[in-house]
Every structure is written in structure tokens, then in C-alpha cells.
Write a structure and sequence with these properties.
By secondary structure, the chain is of the alpha/beta class. The protein contains 19 helices and twelve strands. Helix 2 (about 15-45) runs antiparallel to helix 10, helix 4 runs antiparallel to helix 7 (about 170-205) and helix 5 runs antiparallel to helix 6. The protein binds adenosine-5'-diphosphate (ADP) and magnesium ion (MG).
Length: about 575
């Protein structure tokens, strides 16, 4: 009935829950007083002894009861608000903190859309859980017992029948619980799946349009939506059916009590006043449990959402390093093996050394594992065998901040943000001056373009969609140069740039290598000829290594690829790949 872990985690919520139960109980007592007064009023009327005093008395009691109910209602809403708001706030904070802890690797644990769904709607489901369901549970135990004592003082038989019918409601709840749990788990599964594809299709809408695949994907989403509609309907049917059963029990039980009360009155074992009171109050035996039953379904939905939240909160956080300093910037891979899945190893015992300062190129066919080597250096994945060190310290032991300030990776699709050019550049270095920003823009051959379009305050749209592919890459490069770290990884960072600009940028990269440790991943071998060291990757291993001249002398894979590209470039006229 309860989510044990949820209650345990939010134990200090108990005071609000106790407050809610107490206010409901006082309201019940006030109602009992009103019913007793009404019964007394009717009794007096029948015996013809109702005077002004009697009328005044009932009006006074009515006013008093209304006042008490008003106050209790207000208090109840306040407690309910506090109980649910606190939990919602704290759960959201926890989810946020957990995502922060998981850092860039959170997607290994949870999809973005699921994280959004559970922390918004999922958490909202708990409003009913804490604000209504839990207090109602306790109140619905307390109310029938209280009424049993009061009615029992008048007639034990009626009180007993009413009390005996009450447990039928929780029994019916328990009966559907297991079933409901399974169904809701499926409901949330389908829901997050639909959210996932919705987000992805929306983000890729332009691509879908270009390939005229939008219709097909719309149909696929329709199918998923239909699946979601069906499971939603099934959940609603299940809830409605179970509520109908509870209604039957509640009103059937009340009717049984009323009929028995009237029979007892006929036999003369209770007075008219008592009979009237029993008729008026018997429904109260069942209403709290009946209400509990309807909250139960919403609470179960909250439970299913909370299970998902706890799964995220419990996900193991990869051990993060704490070392903040490394002496050198030399990089070593020692016998490193890694695969994204068990079956296929991408890297099989890769070893190489890169001295402090200098230019190392990683080359090889597409898919051979160049970017994977870069991502291991950036600690994107922790589950590799062997050792990756920077300045003699394993990258696993390096604190995240240190790692990111030490190594800058520039990919062909580095992210640019909506805002001005200056905003994006200052991400690289917060205190960069205008002249420093102008300098780096000149270095990457972007200065004139930016100046034409409004200078450093030129506004970029989301993902810099108002820049061309090459311009985006150049801006990302400029930002990276401003970042001024010790190690740079350029992963196909100039893949979209025209040959002339590429040559100019390569000069900048080569210049950087005079003072920094530079890795260059490029499919265009003309870019790597001046590298101090070229590592040719093949079949998950370093097949060839050396300078351009050494590798050409070997007459191996590198020489073959280089000659092939040269040949091709002769036909295409210039150096663009
Ligand atoms: N996130 C990923 N999950 C699963 N497989 C991946 C992932 N990234 C890359 N791979 C696979 O690993 C291999 C190496 O990829 P990558 O290092 O990106 O190659 P490249 O040399 O072109 O940069 C490829 O076969 C690719 O399909
Ligand atoms: Mg790659």
C-alpha cells in the first residue's frame, strides 16, 4: 500500500501527515455533534417540546460546526500543500544533483527525455501521494473506529454490521494492487518511449523533411501514440472498475446499516433520535475508505514514477578522480583495450607515448577507433582495460575540472549556443578582452565575416544555425584556442572547411604544437605530414607509427592511403577532401 522507501526518505513529512489526519478527525467529530444535535432537534419536534431555545441551540451548534469545519479545512489544505511541496522540491533537487554527479555521462544511465519527464510530471504525481493518499489512509482507519464506538454506545448490532463491512474496501484495493502495479509500470514505459521518439523526431524534423521520411516517422509515432492511448484506456478501465466495486461495497454497507437501524427501531431497541443519527452517519463509515480507493490509483501512478526516479538516484556514479595537479602534459596509453559492447572490441591493446609538446596525428579508416581514443582521454568511458595517463597520473584519478581545463577537445560538431559571438567565445575564457577575441577570430579566418555581420555582438541562433558549417567549425576552433589548455585534441575539426581556410587553420594548429601537446585526427593525410608522430590505427591496434617520411618508407597501409588521396586530389584540382 505504501512505498516504503519514499516514506523513509521523507520521514520528516510525518508531522504534516499527522496534522492532516488530526484536522480530518476533528471535522468528523464536529459532524457527529451536528448529527446528534439534529437528531435531538427532531426528537423534540416530535414530542412537541421544541421552543425558541431549542431552535437557537441548533442554529448555534450549526454555526459552531461550520466554523470548526472551515478552520480545519484551511489547516488541512495548508498541511497538504507543505507536505507535497517539500517532497516535490527535494526530489527534484535530488534528481538534479544526481544528474550533475553523473555529469556528461548521464546518458549512459537515462535518456534526456525520460529525465525531463520523471522530474516534471513524475514528481508531480507525488502531490496526491503525500498531500492526500497517505493521510487519507490513516484517517480511513481512524474514522470507522471512532464511529463504531459512538454508534456502539447506542446499538452494538448496527455498529458491528457497519464495522464488518468496512474491511471489504481495502480488500478490494489489495486485490487490484498487484495487477495495477504491473499495468502502471507498462504505462510509464510506453509513456517515456513515446516522449523519447517525440523529442528525437522533433529535433531531427528538418532531416526527416529533406528525406521525405517525415510521413513514415509520423506514422510510426502514431502507432506509438495509439499504443499509449490503449494502455491509458486500460489503466482508466481498471481504475473505474475498481472504483465501481468500492462504490458498491460502500453504499451497500451503508444501506445494510440503515436497514438494520430501522429494523432495530421497529423492534423498539433504539429511539427515533438514535435511528435518525444512524441513518445520517452510516455513510460516513465508508466514505473515507471509498475516497482512499480513488486516491489509491493516483498514488499507484506516483509509485510507478517514483520507482523510476529511485532507479536514477541509485544508479552507480562513476568514481571521480580528486587529483588536481599533474606535473607534465605527456600522454601515455598503456595496453588499452575497450569496446562499447562485450562482443566487439574497438581497441585491442593500444600503447603509445606522446611527449610534452608536439604534434601527434591519429589516422586510419573511418570507424577504426580514432575518436574512441580521444574519448578515453576525455574520460567519456570508464570501463577500459589498461592505463591512460597524463603527466604520469591516470585520467581516472584526475578531478573533472582539472581534466577539462587541461584538455580541450574540438569536434566537427562542437556545440555553439544561442547568443552573441562574444558570449560563445567567452565560454573559452571568461575574461577574454575584445582584442584577444578579435585575434583568435583572425587566426581562424573568421574575423571579416563576423565584422560584416555586426562584430562581436553578432547574434547566433540556436546551435548557430545562421552560420555555415565551416563558419561554425571556425568559431568552435577560435573558442578552443582561447581556452588555452595544455593539451588539444582536434577530432576532424576542419572537416567542413574549404581547403584554403583549412590550410590556414592547420598552420595555427601546427603553431600550437610548439607550446602544447596537440592531437590531430584527420582523414585528410595531407594535414598530418608535418606531425612529429603519426599513429596509423587498424583493426584496433596501432599498425604503423613514425613520421611521414618513415611511414612512406615502410610502403605499408599509410603509404597506400596517402598515395591514393594524392592521386584523387590531382583530379579534383586542389586539396579539398
Ligand atoms: N557510442 C558508441 N556506441 C557504440 N559503438 C560506438 C560508439 N561510438 C563509436 N562506436 C563504434 O566504435 C567504432 C570506432 O568508432 P570511432 O572511434 O568513432 O571511429 P573513428 O575512427 O571514425 O573516429 C566504430 O565501429 C563505431 O561504430
Ligand atoms: Mg571519429
Amino acid at each position: 500500500m505504501f512505498h516504503k522507501r519514499l516514506l523513509k526518505e521523507f520521514r520528516d513529512n510525518q508531522k504534516y501527515i499527522a496534522g492532516m489526519v488530526a484536522t480530518q478527525w476533528v471535522t468528523l467529530l464536529a459532524n457527529v455533534v451536528l448529527m446528534l444535535a439534529a437528531a435531538d432537534f427532531i426528537g423534540k419536534m416530535r414530542s412537541g417540546i421544541l421552543g425558541i431555545a431549542g431552535i437557537a441551540q441548533i442554529l448555534l451548534i450549526l454555526a459552531g460546526v461550520l466554523l470548526v469545519r472551515g478552520v480545519m479545512n484551511t489547516l488541512n489544505s495548508r498541511f497538504s500543500f507543505q507536505a507535497s511541496t517539500e517532497v516535490k522540491c527535494r526530489l527534484r533537487e535530488k534528481v538534479y544533483a544526481k544528474l550533475m554527479k553523473l555529469g556528461g555521462r548521464y546518458r549512459d544511465t537515462i535518456a534526456t527525455s525520460e529525465a525531463v519527464q520523471i522530474s516534471t510530471e513524475g514528481v508531480d504525481q507525488l502531490e496526491i501521494y503525500f498531500g492526500k493518499y497517505v493521510p487519507q489512509f490513516f484517517y480511513s482507519l481512524l474514522a470507522p473506529l471512532t464511529l463504531f464506538i459512538i454508534v456502539g454506545m447506542m446499538n452494538m448490532k448496527v455498529a458491528g454490521v457497519l464495522l464488518l463491512c468496512v474491511p471489504l474496501i481495502p480488500l478490494s484495493i489489495v486485490a487490484v494492487q498487484k495487477f495495477a502495479k504491473k499495468m502502471l509500470k507498462r504505462y510509464w514505459g510506453t509513456y517515456t518511449e513515446l516522449g523519447d521518439s517525440f523529442l528525437e523526431n522533433l529535433q531531427g524534423l528538418t532531416t526527416l523533411k529533406i528525406y521525405q521520411a517525415d510521413g513514415r516517422y509520423a506514422e510510426k509515432m502514431d502507432e506509438e501514440a495509439e499504443k499509449f492511448r490503449k494502455i491509458t484506456m486500460r489503466v482508466l478501465i481498471m481504475q473505474l472498475n475498481s472504483i465501481s466495486v468500492m462504490d458498491l461495497v460502500a453504499y451497500g454497507g451503508a444501506a445494510a446499516g440503515i436497514i438494520l437501524g430501522i429494523l432495530e427501531f421497529g423492534k423498539g431497541s433504539i429511539s427515533l433520535e438514535e435511528c435518525f443519527f444512524m441513518i445520517m452517519i452510516s455513510a460516513e463509515f465508508f466514505l473515507p475508505l471509498r475516497l482512499l480507493g480513488s486516491f489509491f490509483h493516483i498514488a499507484m501512478n506516483g509509485n510507478a514514477a517514483v520507482d523510476k526516479i529511485f532507479r536514477l538516484l541509485d544508479a552507480p556514479v562513476p568514481q571521480k578522480g580528486t587529483v588536481c595537479l599533474t606535473k607534465g602534459n605527456d600522454v601515455q596509453f598503456q595496453n588499452v583495450s575497450f569496446g562499447y559492447d562485450e562482443e566487439k572490441q574497438v581497441l585491442k591493446g593500444v600503447s603509445f607515448e606522446v611527449p610534452q609538446r608536439g604534434f601527434t596525428a591519429l589516422v586510419g579508416e573511418s570507424g577504426c577507433g580514432k575518436s574512441t581514443i580521444a574519448s578515453l582521454l576525455m574520460q567519456d568511458h570508464a570501463s577500459y582495460k589498461g592505463k591512460v595517463t597524463v603527466g604520469g597520473v591516470s585520467v581516472c584519478d584526475l578531478a573533472e575540472d582539472t581534466l577539462y581545463s587541461k584538455i580541450t577537445r574540438i569536434r566537427h560538431d562542437s556545440y555553439l549556443f544561442k547568443g552573441s559571438v562574444a558570449d560563445n567565445l567567452r565560454m573559452g575564457r571568461e575574461d577574454a578582452s575584445e582584442s584577444e577575441m578579435a585575434d583568435v577570430l583572425k587566426k581562424v579566418n573568421l574575423y571579416d565575416t563576423v565584422m560584416e555581420k555586426g562584430g562581436l555582438s553578432m547574434q547566433l541562433d540556436e546551435k548557430a544555425s545562421n552560420l555555415s558549417g565551416g563558419q561554425k567549425q571556425r568559431l568552435a576552433l577560435a573558442r578552443a584556442i582561447l581556452h588555452d589548455s595544455d593539451i588539444y585534441i582536434f577530432d576532424e575539426a576542419t572537416s567542413n572547411i574549404d581547403a584554403e581556410s583549412e590550410n590556414q587553420i592547420m598552420k595555427v594548429i601546427h603553431g600550437l604544437a610548439g607550446t602544447k601537446t596537440v592531437f590531430l585526427i584527420s582523414h585528410r593525410l595531407a594535414n598530418v605530414t608535418s606531425a612529429d608522430q603519426i599513429l596509423m590505427i587498424k583493426d584496433g591496434q596501432i599498425a604503423e607509427r613514425g613520421t611521414h617520411l618513415e611511414l612512406m618508407g615502410m610502403q605499408g597501409e599509410y603509404a597506400r592511403l596517402y598515395k591514393g588521396q594524392k592521386e584523387l586530389e590531382k583530379y579534383t584540382g586542389e586539396g579539398a577532401a
